[in-house]
Design goal:
Layout lengths: L1 E6 L2 E3 L6 E3 L5 E6 L2 E3 L6 E6 L3 E7 L2 E3 L6 E6 L4 E7 L2 E3 L6 E6 L3 E7 L2 E3 L6 E6 L25 E7 L2 E2 L11 E6 L9 E2 L1
Parallel strand pairs: 1-4, 2-5, 3-6, 4-7, 5-8, 6-9, 7-10, 8-11, 9-12, 10-13, 11-14, 12-15, 13-16, 14-17, 15-18
Antiparallel strand pairs: 18-19
């Protein structure tokens, strides 16, 4: 177990993404007032689950102009969980989704976004998939059917709270707009569409 804090850094023009946090043990991360810009790939990638827990706090970061998603979150595994508290972060003008959340298998994720600005991203502003499937692909378009290979009864749980945020519809015509939530509850599959 351990912790790391990054404050007031410029992370830009990297070839395989900006910041990738995927610890192999229980761990915590704090990102304060960083600029993560113009990277090839994902701006900030967070992963956690398995038999351990991951805790992330993000405050007043700017994530912009990356060629993939701005913030990509993947909760997975069996006994652990991923918690994220985001306050006053700006996620804008990325070529993928603004915030892309995949909670899968038996993961428990608790995610709080307060006073965020998520605007002008090419795809969805917030895109959330909660699924019992361990094989669900995070890069699939919103128009692609979710994997229906979860083993019932499902034990995947996620909690998402979004408050006092500013978001606009994505730029691609026909996309799902600001907030899209999809749920695959069991092997049969079930989902909900965009939420405005």
């Amino acid at each position: 177990a351990g912790s790391a804090t990054f404050t007031e850094n410029m992370i830009n023009n990297n070839g395989t993404g900006g910041f990738d946090f995927n610890p192999a043990t229980t761990n915590s991360l704090t990102l304060n007032s960083n600029i993560i810009r113009s990277n090839t790939g994902i701006g900030v990638a967070l992963a956690g689950g398995g038999p351990f827990s991951v805790s992330v706090v993000m405050n007043t970061n700017t994530i912009e102009l990356n060629t993939g998603d701005g913030l990509e979150i993947n909760g997975f595994g069996t006994a652990g969980g991923l918690s994220l508290t985001s306050d006053s972060d700006i996620i804008t003008r990325n070529l993928g989704r603004g915030v892309d959340i995949l909670n899968q298998s038996d993961a428990d994720s608790v995610l709080f976004f307060n006073n965020a600005t998520v605007t002008a991203n090419e795809l969805e502003g917030f895109y959330v998939v909660n699924t019992a499937s361990a094989t669900q692909n995070q890069t699939d378009a919103a128009t692609v059917a979710l994997a229906a290979d979860g083993v019932p009864p499902p034990d995947v749980e996620s909690r998402l709270e979004v408050s006092s945020n500013r978001g606009r519809a994505s730029l691609v015509v026909g996309s799902n707009g600001e907030l899209s939530v999809r749920v695959e509850a069991d092997a049969g599959g079930k989902q909900t569409g965009p939420m405005d």
